[in-house]
Write a structure and sequence with these properties.
Blueprint: H1 2-11, E1 28-41, E2 47-60, H2 62-67, E3 75-89, E4 93-105, E5 112-120, E6 122-125, E7 136-149, E8 154-166, E9 177-189
Antiparallel strand pairs: 1-2, 1-9, 2-3, 3-4, 4-5, 4-6, 5-7, 6-7, 7-8, 8-9
Length: 190
């Protein structure tokens, strides 16, 4: 699988996001991975601490919004992030999610892009809490970050996200679990 991704990286052409020519196929313009640390409070329970690891697939939506009459400068993506989290507290637990985000990055310089992102997606935890009555939930999040293109196609990124987990009132209690998540990653842009 590593050879597959390496092959895709080296046979493609492109440049910085504002000049992207369509990426892989028509829409895919970013493939990356991330890791981080998150911390939140569980009501009447212990602290929630976790280490998320995941992949990032960014799809260029600028051609679509241009048809609607808006020509954004910079980076505008629909992002899909499958991830897994290993919990430090409560111990021996895991979380799994699939986040769908909209990400907008404005070019501060040719290599530096501050960005905002917001989205939601399905989320599953392997333990039961007093706060949430279901293990299946939704992970809504929003945050700020920074992309730095250290080479033509490669970017390092850092982000701070606020995350709210709840079950969308499927079952009570539905108190929600809030946490701050710090993320670091690398991405390849086609």
């Amino acid at each position: 699988m590593l050879l597959f991704f390496c092959g895709i990286f080296f046979i493609s052409t492109g440049s910085y996001p504002q000049d992207a020519s369509g990426g892989l196929g028509i829409w895919l313009q970013e493939v990356g991975f991330f890791a981080g640390y998150g911390k939140g409070d569980l009501e009447s329970e212990k602290t929630l601490e976790f280490i998320p690891l995941g992949f990032r697939f960014g799809f260029d939506v600028r051609p679509l919004v241009k048809k609607l009459g808006w020509e954004p400068k910079g980076l505008l993506e629909f992002v899909c992030e499958p991830y897994v989290g290993s919990n430090l507290q409560p111990k021996d637990n895991m979380e799994f999610g699939l986040a769908f985000l909209i990400k907008y990055g404005f070019p501060f310089t040719e290599k530096l892009y501050p960005f905002i992102e917001v989205g939601t997606g399905p989320y599953y935890i392997t333990w039961s809490t007093n706060t949430q009555s279901t293990q299946f939930n939704f992970d809504s999040q929003g945050g700020l970050g920074l992309l730095y293109f250290f080479e033509n196609h490669w970017a390092a990124n850092a982000a701070l996200r606020f995350r709210h987990v709840s079950n969308a009132a499927i079952k009570q209690p539905n108190g929600g679990i809030e946490s701050l998540v710090y993320l670091l990653g690398f991405s390849y842009y086609y």
